[in-house]
## 1
Amino acid sequence: MTLKKIYFFLLEPYGPQGWWPLLECEGGNPTKTGAMNGYHPGDYSYPKTDEQRFEICVGAILTQNTSWVQVEKALQNLKQLRALRPEAMLKLELRKLKQAIKPAGYFNQKARKIKLFTAFYQKLNGKIPRREELLNVWGIGPETADSIQLYAYRQPSFVIDAYTKRIFSRIGICRENVKYEELQALFEKELKPDPHLYSEYHALIVEHAKRYCRKKPLCKECPLLSVCSFGQHKSSIRLL
DNA sequence: AACCAGGACGTGA
DNA sequence: TCACGTCATGGT
């Protein structure tokens, strides 16, 4: 009940976020960050094509510990090179790949990760990968695996990230060093396994963390002020 | 001019 | 298991 209530507390002020952002989609909205056209609020029917699915996977790797604006630039470069398809990506010279994704940082590691993932992706031949399979690919950790599951394949895996831990530990629901699978299990227990709900919730969490629940939080006008125990003495509603 | 961003891996205790 | 160092660019 608590987690579902918080969901609506976020949805009301922010509205549907239109994740996962794509380079382009019909009737998409401009990003808040860059000049892309890929947010599609309220439309959960993406990816519509296999190219979009692959683009989401690559974006999920590129955005590891990196802001999305930088990832947009990298994706644009890859698009320019026509490399946002598995076959082309595997053929692309390693140094050209590194050059293209340089804006997103960690380009040595990420180039290798993308190559390895692409080989894995191609072997799937359209099948949906299991979470364990994804985790066995070098460079795919829990968050990236769940992002791919949820946004590329519409599987009900709840994505946990640093923002999720920050927000929900401040609220008082968990501690700040809660383990990934532990917090994920809580969300997946409290919420029905609906990919639309999971997608929207995670996107809202990111938006909320950027707007109010920053490192230095802006608690004054926070929409969650009434349910948050941060900096207060009110009894916490700790579930973990 | 530090600090941070939609993490993951390798290492040594 | 776990804490810590490393990877790298660009925006604020």
## 2
Amino acid sequence: MTPIPNISNSQLAQVFNQVADLLEIKGEIIYKILAYRKAADAFNDLDRNVHDIWQEGKLQEIPGIGKAIAEKVDELLTTGHLSFLEKLTKEVPVSLTEILRVPDIGPKKVALFWKQAGITNLDELASAAKAGKLRSLPGMGEKSEQKILAGLEALARRSGRLPLGKAWLIYQSLSDQLSKIPGVEKVESAGSLRRRRDTVGDLDILVASRQPDIVMDAFVNFPDVVRVVGHGDTKSSVEFSNGVSAQLWAHPPERFGTALQYATGSKEHNVRLRELALKRGLSLSEHSLTRTDGSEILCSTEEEVYAALGLPWIPPELREDRGEVQAALAGELPLLIGMEDIIAELHTHSNWSDGKLTIEEMAGEAIRRGLKILAITDHSTGLGITGGLSVEKIPQQRREIEAVQSKVGNKLLLLQGSEVEIMANGELAFPDEALSQFDLVIASLHISLRQPSEKVTSRLLNAIRNPHVDIIGHPTGRLLPDREGADLDMDAVFQAAAEAGVAMEINAHPSRLDLDDINARRAIALGIPLSINTDAHASSDLDLLHFGLGIARRSWATAEQVINTWPKERLLKWLKARHS
DNA sequence: GCCGTTTTCGGCCCGACTGTTTTCAGTCG
């Protein structure tokens, strides 16, 4: 029997995106290309492994997958090859696709440079532009050539996607500056920042103003702007000295709803809405909804936009074209978990390990934020750098927690927890009799994340199956923006977690956001409880909760599915049942 | 290439901005 190649959903998506890139350069009709890109997105967003769906013979039940693409997936999963792609790469050099990453260069220009100037990669493009050889090509000129040189430089200094937390801080500062411009009535984040994606490409910002020209002029002249990418009447985009790009729209207040809806995206969600609008005899744009007779419906709020299409307002976190429009039409949108639902913080550190505050100080901070339950989960030994709690000190820490508990009374329930290290050999850093002394145990991976998939997965499975473990902390161990998580077999992990009834964490720290939205949605689909925690090491960390909440909302989580919302009695009962 | 409470064929979202052009193509979101 031939082994089935192990191709993940995201690898599959990459293959079809590459097909789309090459077809686009080749000059294939745009709708075919869109179909491939849509299929790639569908694979990326799937809450199950494509493998399983393939084995069930249900590929074509995935929206956007038809006969032709299903056959290609079949070939890929059976043989590990795609003859269609192999044939394509013989016609179109793969190195051309790297040129597509240059701003202002799309498939048409790539094809032009390739066919008329023999350019096949970024180096050749740069040489030709510097030598002034591009300006004479049809449709090109001196300005276009300069723009390409600027684009190449921008590409070189572009710093990938921003982690959500950093994007949020930059937005706050830009928002302050924008609100001081005369005539600006409102400032709102848009794009992937407002949708709370874990990383953000460009910052998208919308302002309400009746004098958009003044706003645009002020914006492109902000300090730290190193490049004005575009400067129009209602839209401008700039690049700052730190490599971050931002895009600004300005629309009058009575059109703010359509404009915000448009700027928030996602693009795919917007396409879906516009299709729906057309079916209702309306054309949707950032300016308004237009009837067939040309008359306009103006919307100052997003609620009005969605209502005009017969829909309830869809929260930004859901707007990824992952079935939210269909759910809204059917009246089946989930009632997403909100900040007000969360009463427990279950993953924090005190000065008993590497936290900055005493247990009493942490308790005070938790009370100040309206929390009802706080678990102190200091690191175990085994994670050398942090000076973890030793087995001998567990009773001593218990006495301190009890002392603080008697001081705060019923304002806050304190739990003695542990963040126990999953060691490189797969054992937990504490023996079972030590773990049994805690009210709550989180098991986490911090070290040897680069082990082979089989090894690191088995470590995590071992932790999940330990009857003392209640939560798996930041399951993949990724660090945004650049450090990938461990190469885990998430199917095996989720299956084990579902069987053991262990909760999986959404770590709210913006450098983690782990689980991510797709994995969290898979967990929910399997009935695995989620736990959103800040992993606070200092008081200000407790304010990071909203980032984790954003990820949970993106995974369609309701309050019921997150143990941090459960009343005290229910949480304690759940813990007790697990430990008995 | 996908899809169907107008369709199994003929459609497939909408507009801003830029640069090259005399009315539009390419790129982007």
